[in-house]
Amino acid sequence: VRLYLIPGSATDRRMFAPQLEAFSSLGIPEWLPPNDLKEPLQSYARRLAERIDTSKPFLLGGVSLGGMIAQEMALV
Prior knowledge:
The chain is about 35% helix and about 15% strand. Helix 2 packs across helix 3 (about 65-75). The protein starts with a strand and ends with a helix. It is globular. It has helices at about 15-20, 40-50, 65-75; strands spanning about 1-5, 25, 60. It has three helices and three strands. The mean pLDDT is about 95. By secondary structure, the chain is α/β, with parallel strands linked by helices.
């Protein structure tokens, strides 16, 4: 099972350094630039979800804003 973690705002994959060492199959999608300054969270989450391999079982989580985005991604 692949684990995907979404970092919070103003952070990146470095936030999950200990998790990267512990989980060899950890995936951390890179932040995407917003389509515009008023892009809805649901739209952003949908675009970020396209970067996840859903053909195999996976777990999805996040921290702060990343957690909210992960919840929206789970609905896609």
